[in-house]
């Protein structure tokens, strides 16, 4: 689609909410204030009813993206009706934000097929070519944060388990071309550009949002066509600090979660923290270099294609340090 001329119509924005990149902050404090768009954060559906859909808490894109992209020309109409809601006037723009879309980046070709089919369906309702935004995060910090997030369901979670998880993620014979592909940002960008075109994709570093929230938010809000007065009011919003990470001095550390017990519909019951001693994992310099080295070519491709100064935020290591 990237080679086609843009088609005028009402705006369609997609936030590819990669997990662990401040999506909760954006969905809770920024996107709801954008009254020039119909905002749908983590939309849910009543159209699917398999057990896996219940486990995904009937999140629209989690349910859709685990199926073939052929669902969009087949039953996409009712899905889009749910997203737009009964009050749709046929003129207002739409913003959809969901981490489930980002998780599908582990299969970028499948993600591109779904987004292209969804965009084609949206065009029949008067929408323009989609404009897509995604936040990136250093892969070494992302993997540590992710491991801490799911540590409650890992028996004996700790340093050894974290290192084993990293080894599996980077192993091309294990998860590198599965789960690990979600962190291949060049592959993600290529998939998104295939759908929205070179000028229809905005990538921003999560680190910039944390360190320089005002200019980063200004760029995001400008991309979303936000009126100036609304944008100025929002740029001073501050997100919550990640209470599970400690990056002050020495090797960065992340606090692990207490063990939890599975309940129905994917929910879990955590054991009381007071009966479980606190555990942390650390990200050693050696392990950080190993992770960033594995994704170095991809990060450099993204930096070259977008002009993002990813080196400033630590996305690269020197070849002789790997």
What does this structure look like?
This protein is an alpha/beta fold. It has helices at 23-30, 51-55, 60-65, 71-84, 99-103, 108-123, 139-150, 159-170, 185-196, 206-211, 213-223, 228-234, 285-294, 296-306, and strands at 12-16, 37-41, 93-98, 131-136, 201-205, 245-246, 253-255, 260-262, 268-270, 280-282. The strands form 3 sheets. Strands 2-3-1-4-5 form a 5-stranded parallel beta sheet, sandwiched between helices. A 3-stranded antiparallel beta sheet has the order 6-7-10, covered by helices on one side. Helix 4 crosses helix 6, helix 6 (108-123) packs parallel to helix 9 and helix 11 runs antiparallel to helix 12 (228-234). The longest helix is centred in the middle third of the chain and has 16 residues, at 108-123. The chain starts with 11 loop residues before the first strand and ends in a 16-residue tail after the last helix. The model is unreliable at 240-244 (pLDDT under 50).
Structure, briefly:
The protein has 322 residues and is α/β, with parallel strands linked by helices. The protein is built from 14 helices and ten strands. Strand 8 and strand 9 form a beta hairpin.
Q: How is the biggest beta sheet arranged?
A: 5 strands, parallel
Strand content: 5-15%
Tell me the quaternary state. single chain
Low-confidence stretches: 240-244
Number of strands: 10
Instruction: Output the strand order for the largest sheet.
Output: 2-3-1-4-5
Helix content: 40-55%
Class from helix and strand fractions:
alpha/beta
Our measurement of the CA-to-CA distance between the termini, rounded to an integer number of angstroms, reads 38 Å
Count up the helices: 14
Order of helices and strands: EHEHHHEHHEHHHEHHHEEEEEHH
Rg calculated over all Cα atoms: 20 Å
Instruction: Give the CA-based shape.
Output: globular
Mean pLDDT: 89
């Amino acid at each position: 689609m990237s080679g086609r001329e843009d088609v005028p119509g009402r705006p369609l924005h997609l936030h590819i909410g990669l997990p662990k990149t401040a999506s909760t902050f954006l969905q809770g404090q920024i996107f709801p204030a954008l009254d020039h768009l119909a905002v749908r954060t983590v939309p849910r559906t009543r159209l699917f009813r398999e057990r896996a859909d219940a486990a995904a808490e009937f999140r629209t894109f989690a349910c859709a993206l685990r199926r073939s992209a052929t669902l969009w020309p087949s039953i996409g109409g009712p899905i889009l009706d749910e997203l737009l809601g009964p009050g749709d006037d046929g003129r207002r723009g739409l913003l959809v934000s969901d981490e489930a879309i980002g998780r599908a980046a582990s299969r970028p070709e499948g993600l591109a097929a779904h987004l292209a089919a969804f965009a084609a369906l949206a065009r029949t309702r008067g929408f323009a070519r989609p404009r897509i935004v995604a936040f990136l995060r250093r892969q070494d910090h992302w993997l540590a944060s992710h491991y801490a997030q799911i540590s409650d369901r890992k028996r004996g979670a700790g340093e050894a388990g974290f290192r084993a998880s990293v080894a599996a993620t980077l192993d091309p014979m294990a998860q590198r071309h599965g789960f690990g592909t979600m962190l291949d940002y060049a592959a993600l960008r290529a998939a998104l550009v295939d759908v929205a075109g070179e000028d229809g994709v905005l990538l921003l570093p999560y680190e910039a949002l944390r360190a320089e929230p005002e200019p980063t938010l200004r760029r995001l809000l400008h991309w979303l066509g936000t009126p100036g007065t609304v944008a100025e009011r929002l740029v001073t919003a501050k997100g919550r600090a990640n209470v599970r990470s400690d990056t002050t001095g020495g090797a960065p550390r992340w606090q692990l979660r207490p063990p939890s017990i599975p309940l129905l519909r994917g929910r879990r019951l955590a054991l009381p923290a007071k009966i479980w001693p606190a555990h942390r994992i650390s990200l050693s310099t050696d392990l950080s270099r190993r992770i960033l080295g594995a994704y170095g070519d991809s990060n450099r491709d993204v930096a070259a294609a977008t002009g993002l100064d990813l080196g400033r935020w630590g996305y690269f290591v020197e070849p002789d340090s790997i």
